[in-house]
Amino acid sequence: MRYVITGGAGFIGSHLVERFLSLDHQVVVVDNLITGKAENLILHKNLTFIEQNVCKYIEIDGKVDWVMHFASPASPIDFKKLPIQILKVGSSGTINALGVAKAKKAKFFLASTSEVYGDPLEHPQKETYVGNVDPISERSVYDEAKRFAEATTMAYHRFHKIDTRI
Hints:
Layout: E1 2-6, H1 11-22, E2 26-31, E3 47-51, E4 66-69, H2 76-81, H3 83-104, E5 107-110, H4 140-160, E6 164-165
Helix pairs in contact: 3-4
């Protein structure tokens, strides 16, 4: 199997990369290192690292089985420091990652968050819960970026018939 993992130098992404490499899969990491760290990645013959912002067109040579979109600053500190970048990675970054999946006829996985529901009125949230979102709060950049990413993922699933997971 060959995976493309955006945000693969981040905390969760890098652990997923390590797991796939341990199973002898091929992994292509696309990360601009805005919050991820190159030292999170282990040197491995099956690892290819592309230092790039996913908000720019992503070109991957060869076969791809899965595109896994983990790219996004996710810390509350980042909501103040990187609000525009968060919105861009959730929008154009998601569209570009889905574009790779479409071009390569690959499956697509979006790493989302319960933050799409906003400040919950019920806990834990059921899958049928639609949320309590404040679209103009300081933290809304993350919530709304992930909501947009989910909507875009489902639009590509319905329109382009891409096999998707959220």
